[in-house]
Amino acid sequence: MRGAARPSPRPRRRAAFALAVGSLLSAAGLVGAFGFVAACGSDVAEDPSYLLVELAPVDVPQRPIAAAVSIAKGGTEIGKLCVRLGDEPASFVLKRDPGKPASDRITIEVRSFVMLSGADNAAPGKEFACPAVLPPSVSDVQSVETDFCEAESHKLVFRVGSVCGCDDMPDGGVGDGGDADGGDAGMSDAGMSDAGMSDAGVSDAGDMDGGDDGGVPDAGPPPCGCGVGLTCGAGLDSTGQACAASTCCSARVSSACVLGG
Asked: Using CA atoms, how far apart are residues 168 and 65, in angstroms rounded to an integer?
C-alpha cells in the first residue's frame, strides 16, 4: 500500500535460538526465551550487535552428534545449551542490546559428543536440554574469547569435533584421531579435555631411565592439543580467516569487527 511503512526484512532463520546477551551479561542473568532473533526495526535509535555462532561438525576423527556450549564472562558461566548436530552447520545468535558495551568480552566454549542423552529427541540444528552431568568431550574442548562489534553482525565458526596435534600419537589420543591434519602439538588450557589426554603422553609413554631424576619416566609422544593461547579448529587463524578443522588458531579474537559476516 502506497505510503505505508515497509517492515524491516527478517533475517534468515538459521539460528537454533537466540540469547539477549545485553541482559545475559548483566547481574540479572539469562533473560528472554529461546527462539529466533527478531528483525531490527527501523524505529530504534541504536542498532544492537549480533554474533552468529556457527557449529560446523567435522568427520575426523568421528562426526559428533551433539555439542554443548558454555558462555562465560570473567570466568563465570552465564549461559549454556546443548545442540543436536546434523550434516549442515547448526547456529545460534548472541545479541548485545543497544547501550551495553560492545567491548565487554565473553568466552564461548564448545564440547563435542558422539553420544549425549537427549540428542536423539531433537531435530538437527535444534537445542535440547543438557543432561545434568556431561560426559568427557570426544575431541579438544574449543574455547574462544571475543567481544562484539558495535551495531554490526559478525560470524564466529567452530569446527566441532576437530582434533589437533595428534599426528605422532599411536592411537591419536582421542578415538583414533591420529590422522587429523596439522596443528602444533602441545597442551592448551582451552584445548584439553579428559578425552584429549591419553596415557600415551603421561606415564606409559616411555621406559624408566633409572637416572638421577627419581625414576620419572622418559617423555613420550606429545599429547593432543594446541599450545598456550591457542584453540583447535575455532576462531581465526594467523591470516584472519576462519580457522580450519584440525588447525591450531588463536583462542582470543582481538575484535569481533574482524570476523566475517
From this structure: 27
Look up residue 223 and give its three cell numbers.
599429547
Going from the C-alpha of 17 to that of each of 31, 35, 47, 48, 224, the distances in angstroms are 13, 4, 20, 17, 32
Q: Given this model, what pLDDT does residue 261 score? A: 81
Predicted TM-score (pTM) of the model is: 0.66
- Pairing mode of beta strands 153-160, 106-113: unpaired
Phi, psi (degrees; rounded to nearest 5) at 205: -80, -20
Walk me through the domains of the chain, giving residue ranges and CATH numbers: 12-38+45-166+233-261 (2.60.40.10)
Cβ(136)–Cβ(195) under 8 Å? yes
Tell me what pLDDT residue 115 has. 94
- How far apart CA 43 and CA 20 sit, in angstroms, is 19
SS3 158: strand
Buried residues in 7-35 as b, exposed as e (16+ CB within 10 A): eeeebeebbbbbbbbbbbbeeeebeeeee
pLDDT of 15 strictly over 80: no
DSSP secondary structure letters along 95-135:
EE-TTS-TT--EEEEEEEESS-TTGGGS-TT-EEPPPSSPP
